[in-house]
Amino acid sequence: MAGKRSLTTLQLDSLLEQQDIDSLVQQLESKHDPPVKPFLPNSKVNAHRTNRLWKAIGAEPHADLLDSWTEENLEIFDGNIENFIGTTKIPTGIAGPLRVNGLFAQGDYPVPLATSEAALVASYHRGACLISAAGGCTSMMLYQALNRSPAFAFETMREAGQFVAWSMEVFDDFQQQANATTQHGKLIDVGTTIEGNHVYLNFEFTTGDASGQNMVTIATQAICDFIQENCPVPIKRLYVEGNLSGDKKASSQAYTSCRGRKVTAEVILTPEVLEKYVHATPRQMIDYWRMSAIGGVLSGTMGVQGHFANGLAALYIATGQDAACVAESAMGVTRFEETSEGNLYASVTLPGVMVGTVGGGTGLPSQKACLELMGLHGSGNSAALAEVCAALLLGGELSIIAALATGDFTKAHHKLAR
C-alpha cells in the first residue's frame, strides 16, 4: 500500500495551493460542537417511518427517490432495507438469447443486466450471440457449498488441541444443532485451523436454492451455543465468524476449493462463426489471451480472466443477488486453445458463484421480474442460474478478448460511451 514520491508530492501540492499544513491539521481534528443527531434507526418500511426520515434529513421527499409507484408500494421492501427513503433506478438491458446446454440450465435465456456502464450490455450481448450461433455452450455446476468459520480463543495451545479433538467427536451433534435451524440447509463438513492458542472451525453447508449467508450464520450460531454449553475446555473468547470463511473477499482458500457454486462452461467456435460475429481469427484470440494471461500473473491477480466482475455485478443487481459477493465470485480462469481442426476452444471456470433464486432480494418486484424473464425464479432453479452465470461470463470473455485482439475495444467505447 506504499505511495510513490511523485504521487505524494502531487497530492501535497494540490492540498497546499489554498492553505498551509497547520490549517490542514486543524481541519482534520475531531469536532464535537454542534453534536451530531443520528437518524432514528428504522427497520420497518412504511409511510410514517419513511416520511419521518425525510424530515430528519431536512428535505422534502425527492420525487426521483420516492416516486409515486414506490410510495404506493412501500411495504414490499420491508425486510430488505433499513432507514428506507426510496428506490434507485438502474438501467437494465437484455443480452442474448444465450443458449445453454447444462446439467440444470437447458434452453435459450434472455439475460437481464443492470448497469450504468455504456458498452457493457453490448459486449455481453455480442458474446451471447456468438455462443448461440455455435449451438450454445456446455455449462456445468460441479458442486455447491457455503462456509462459516467461528473462532475460539483458549489459554494455551494444549487446550486448543483438546478442543479440536472434542469437536471431531461431536460432529454429529453439530449437525443436529445446525440442521434444526433450517429446512433447506445442511451441515456437511468441518475443517480445523489451529494458530497458537486460537482455533478456527470452518463449517461447510449446502443451502438449497438460497445464496445462504444468513442461513449459515444462524446455523453456526446454534453450533456455537452448543459448544459454549458443552465444551469440556474453558473458552476465553468465541466469535461466530473469525474471518476465515472468505465472506465477500477474494481469498486463495475460496479460489482453490468452493464457496458458493463451482461452475465451468466451454464452447468450440469455428473460424467462420468467429469472423461473422467478432471479426477475429482463432489465432488472434489465442495470441491475445496468452499475453493477457501472463499480464494477469505478473499483476498478481487471483486466477486469470478478463472481466468476470462486469457481467456478474450487472446480473447480480438485476436479479437481487448480494452485489458485495462479486468481490469473491469474480475469481476464476479463462482458457483459450486451438483444436486439432483449427477451431477455438474457450472455457471459463469459477470456484465460487454466490447466487440464489429464493430469499434475499430475489423477491423484490424488479428483481423477481428479471428472474422470471429467464424462467429461473423460485425453488429448484439456483443451479441453473449458476450455469447461466458461467455461460454469460464465457460470452463476455470472448467478446472483450476479440475486441482487444482486433483493436475494436477503444472504437466500441468511443461509439457507445460518448
TrEMBL record:
It is an enzyme of class 1 (oxidoreductase). It comes from Oceaniferula flava. Pfam families: HMG-CoA_red. The keyword Nucleotidyltransferase does not apply. The keyword NADP applies. One of its GO terms (molecular function) is hydroxymethylglutaryl-CoA reductase (NADPH) activity. Its EC number is 1.1.1.34. Belongs to the HMG-CoA reductase family. InterPro entries: HMG_CoA_Rdtase, HMG_CoA_Rdtase_cat_sf, HMG_CoA_Rdtase_CS, HMG_CoA_Rdtase_eu_arc, HMG_CoA_Rdtase_NAD(P)-bd_sf, HMG_CoA_Rdtase_sub-bd_dom_sf. The lineage of its organism: Bacteria, Pseudomonadati, Verrucomicrobiota, Verrucomicrobiia, Verrucomicrobiales. This is hydroxymethylglutaryl-CoA reductase (NADPH). GO terms for biological process: coenzyme A metabolic process; isoprenoid biosynthetic process. Keywords: NADP, Oxidoreductase.
